TrEMBL record, chain A:
The organism of origin for this protein: Salipiger mangrovisoli
Sequence ranges assigned to domain D-galactarate/Altronate dehydratase C-terminal in this UniProt record: 138-383
Official protein name in the record: UxaA family hydrolase
Residues annotated as signal peptide: none
GO molecular function per UniProt: hydrolase activity
Source species taxonomy: Bacteria, Pseudomonadati, Pseudomonadota, Alphaproteobacteria, Rhodobacterales
From TrEMBL, chain B:
Domain SAF: residue ranges: 12-83
InterPro entries according to UniProt: SAF, SAF_UxaA/GarD, UxaA_altronate/galactarate_dh
Source species: Salipiger mangrovisoli
PANTHER family: ALTRONATE DEHYDRATASE, ALTRONATE/GALACTARATE DEHYDRATASE
Pfam families referenced in this protein's UniProt entry, alphabetically: SAF
UniProt entry tagged with the keyword Lyase: yes
UniProt keyword Aminoacyl-tRNA synthetase present: no
Positions in coiled-coil regions: none
Protein name: UxaA family hydrolase
Length: 396, 104
């Protein structure tokens, strides 16, 4: 395995040029710039809101200085409140080439698209010069998420992902699982796995917070397709989702954008702090994937039963299909057939090993199915978080 | 367990379909054989034994909800006869008013 070496010592498994719009009004222009580079690794991200949000600003910083990112072009309309000067300084301080284009100053749509494409063209040659150096599994950060879940997710795909997590944590990688709203009912058994009692209490409280938050909203993290697929309650979905964390001790609790300080297993608390202000914690699976990427995830494991086809900007997504019927229907989108476990063809251990080996192959440059198909989904919305508490990352 | 239904934990009072099972299928249970009165899709659950109203439903050896009515052995266990101990389950309704979660 080799990675692109960044100034902070982290290594990337991709070398992407990111074009980021800073308000929805600049989205079209930014996407036109990206569409000029169909053969290059140039990807679109952005924040749609015009009002300021500390969380979104921090997420944008983390994403634009992610080890998989080589250079950043910001596209601003000009009058939005996003602090583009501070964002540009943060990227510049990370040693990456950065440029900000302001549509209102650049002469409009066509002029900004031309200027943006000219800059990207030049910077592609520049990022190609970034050195690739040897990289170990212990330098990887890996996230896991499940979406489009059904009753098979918890008996094949998620246990196999959990087995892969056990192998990867054993090799020194940092592994992140998340969505505390889908751990409702698991808080007590999860707390027992914490490396300290104080962390156990923090894990318990994060799930209790999620329960309160979703209760206020009136809907749990449970979609109609979950029920059609055989799941009856949030706690049934939770128990199935929980097993993708594997059996390792839980080393810490992080929030979106916090970087795991060392290898081990981490829970990401994705439910906002304080009163309900901006609606649902994660309006779709990609919001959770983006949050794990902001916490440094080089790639994500996505377990699906009903069948999701998404990928992500910045970090590749490995799709693990839990349901053998879905796999046959959507095999062009699926990287791993965990449905073999249900049909008795392979064991959880065998599929877990396949996932671990695929992680190394993708980190070495092999494209995932969604990556090869061109999926680069991205979503970032409003949230508010307080910093993590002292119990969340116990001293080793 | 061999056959179309899986017992995930010894403590469970439900079995999970490892393949879709047709209406009329005979399923051997501890208390005797029962015949499925409706098709059970892949990954849906049936009662392993008679379950009383108010009893906890156990899957993976852990509670996943509470029976809202008496459920006879072999019957489909789903959103129509169990509820969450946490937040309510919402689902789509088909045009004819039948829950998409139950009708397959």
């Amino acid at each position: 395995m080799k990675g692109w070496l960044r100034q902070d010592g982290r290594k990337g498994i991709r070398n992407t040029v990111v074009v980021a719009y800073l308000v929805e009004c600049a989205h079209f222009v930014a996407s036109k710039i990206v569409s000029g580079f169909p053969e290059d690794d140039v990807q679109l991200i952005g924040f749609p809101g015009c009002y300021p949000n500390e969380y979104a600003a921090r997420m944008m910083d983390r994403l634009c200085t992610h080890p998989n990112v080589g250079a950043v072009l910001f596209v601003s309309l000009g009058c939005e409140s996003f602090d583009k000067v501070r964002a540009s300084e943060a990227v510049s301080a990370s040693g990456r080439p950065v440029k900000t284009l302001v549509i209102q100053k650049a002469g409009g749509t066509a002029s900004t698209v031309q200027m943006g494409r000219d800059w990207v063209h030049g910077v592609l040659a520049q990022v190609a010069e970034v050195p690739r150096v040897p990289m170990g599994v212990d330098e990887l950060v890996i996230g896991t998420v499940c979406g489009g879940s059904d009753g098979t997710s918890g008996i094949s795909g998620n246990p196999a992902a959990g087995k892969a997590f056990d192998l990867l944590v054993g090799e020194g990688a940092a592994c992140i699982f998340e969505e505390t709203g889908e751990l409702i009912g698991c808080e007590e058994i999860m707390a027992e796995r914490a490396v300290t009692p104080a962390l156990g209490q923090a894990l318990r409280e994060s799930v209790q917070k999620a329960e309160r938050y979703y209760a206020t909203l009136g809907y749990g993290s449970f979609a109609a397709g979950n029920a059609a697929g055989g799941l009856s309650t949030i706690e049934e979905k939770s128990l199935g989702a929980y097993v993708k964390s594997g059996d390792s001790p839980i080393s810490g609790l992080i929030k979106p954008g916090d970087l795991p300080p060392r290898g081990g297993l981490y829970l990401m608390d994705v439910v906002p702090d304080g009163d309900v202000r901006f609606g649902f914690p994660n309006i779709s699976d990609n919001a959770e994937i983006v949050e794990m990427i902001a916490s440094g995830a080089h790639l994500s494991l996505f377990v699906t039963g009903r069948g999701s086809v998404v990928g992500s900007a910045i970090s590749p997504v490995i799709k693990i299909c839990a349901n053998p019927q879905t796999y046959r229907n959507l095999s062009e989108d699926m990287d791993v057939n965990a449905g073999d476990i249900i049909e008795g063809k392979r064991s959880i251990e065998e599929v877990g090993r396949e996932i671990r080996d695929l992680v190394v192959a993708v980190a070495s440059g092999a494209p995932t199915k969604s990556e090869a198909l061109g999926h680069r989904e991205f979503i970032l919305t409003y949230k508010s978080f307080e910093p993590i508490g002292p119990a969340c990352l116990p001293a080793a | 367990m061999i056959g179309p239904f899986l017992l995930l934990s010894a403590a469970d009072n439900v079995l999970v379909a490892r393949e879709s099972a047709a209406e009329g299928t005979d399923v051997p249970l501890e208390q005797g054989s029962v015949m499925l009165t409706r098709p059970i899709p892949l990954a849906h659950k049936i009662a392993r034994r008679d379950i009383a109203e108010g009893e906890k439903i156990l899957k993976y050896g852990m509670p996943i909800g509470i029976a809202t009515e008496a459920i006879p052995a072999g019957a489909h266990v789903h959103v129509h006869n169990i509820r969450s101990a946490y937040t309510p389950t919402h689902m789509l309704q088909d045009a004819d008013g039948v829950s998409a979660a139950v009708a397959q």
